[in-house]
Design brief:
The complex is a heterodimer of chains A (165) and B (109).
Chain A: H1 2-22, H2 26-46, H3 50-75, H4 87-109, H5 127-136, H6 139-160
Chain B: H1 6-10, H2 13-33, H3 37-61, H4 65-96
Helix pairs in contact in B: 2-3, 3-4
The chains are: A mainly alpha (165), B mainly alpha (109).
């Protein structure tokens, strides 16, 4: 049962990821990327990481992709205005990416499989466990990320502001 | 042994490694083969998500919450990155009238 759900979600994720790259219209690319994100959220649920699944849907599908859609709408991009690379360059890009995949898969094939199933803890993905880890072991990175958000906010507003001479 | 979810019993960890590799390489191909800067940013998001999925898979298989906290931080960084990136893109569009990366060659000697 889990295996077939895994195959279905993986197929969905890979297919819509391919469509993100292939689709001519930027709006279609964004919509396919949202499907990919939902498939990945399904993987998180399958992996017993409920908190991550919820945060993933809220942050990616809810915030980031809406921002992308809004910018594409604001810039009025469509399939006609979409710049295309020459087929030769596209083929070169595909070969480069495929070669990278072959190298990675070849390198990962020789890794040893380690199983630690005997010490499985089902509460890993719950907010209680993650919150304790976040506020105990990762307190400093958590605080620093607030500074990152502040600087990103200020930077985004400064960059997008119309220049006044 | 009863409380181990089916995914960990039936799906080897290698499958997740392969899936993440595949998604990451599709993202790389997208970055290399597209000219629209917004799509390139989306493909970078795809690559970040492939890494997130792998971290979550390792975290679940090895019962270590630190991996999922890392994913949380990557999501935070991705959100900030998208906000700044799209602000830069709107500024580029306002100044040059296009988001085609082939026109962004002012730094070329």
């Amino acid at each position: 049962m889990s295996l077939s759900i895994f195959y279905f979600l993986s197929f969905l994720a890979v297919l819509s990821a391919l469509m993100v790259v292939i689709a001519k219209n930027p709006i279609h690319s964004v919509l396919y990327l949202i499907i990919t994100f939902f498939a990945i959220a399904g993987h998180y649920v399958l992996l017993n990481a409920q908190f991550l699944a919820a945060v993933h849907v809220i942050v990616y599908a809810g915030a980031i992709m809406v921002l992308f859609l809004y910018v594409i709408m604001m810039l009025n991009l469509n399939a006609d205005a979409e710049p295309q690379k020459s087929p030769w360059l596209k083929g070169a890009a595909t070969i480069a990416g495929g070669t990278m995949m072959i190298v990675l898969v070849g390198a990962l094939r020789s890794t040893a499989e380690v199983n630690s199933i005997s010490q499985y803890d089902p509460n890993i993905g719950l907010i209680k466990t993650l919150g304790k880890t976040l506020y105990k072991d990762f307190m400093l990175p958590f605080e620093i990320s607030s500074i990152l958000f502040l600087s990103a906010m200020v930077g985004a507003v400064m960059l997008a502001k119309k220049e006044t001479k | 042994m009863e409380n181990i979810p089916g995914i960990i019993r039936q799906v080897p960890l290698n499958y997740y490694v392969l899936l993440s590799t595949l998604l990451f390489c599709i993202g790389v191909i997208g970055v290399l083969s597209r000219r629209n800067a917004i799509i390139i940013l989306m493909c970078v998001e795809l690559m970040l998500n492939a890494v997130n999925l792998l971290l979550a898979a390792f975290s679940s298989y090895y019962s270590d919450p630190a991996g999922q906290v890392f994913v949380f931080f990557i999501m935070a960084v991705a959100a900030a990155e998208v906000a700044v990136g799209l602000a830069i893109l709107t500024m580029i569009y306002r100044n040059t009238g296009t988001v085609d990366i082939n026109f962004l060659n002012k730094l070329k000697g």
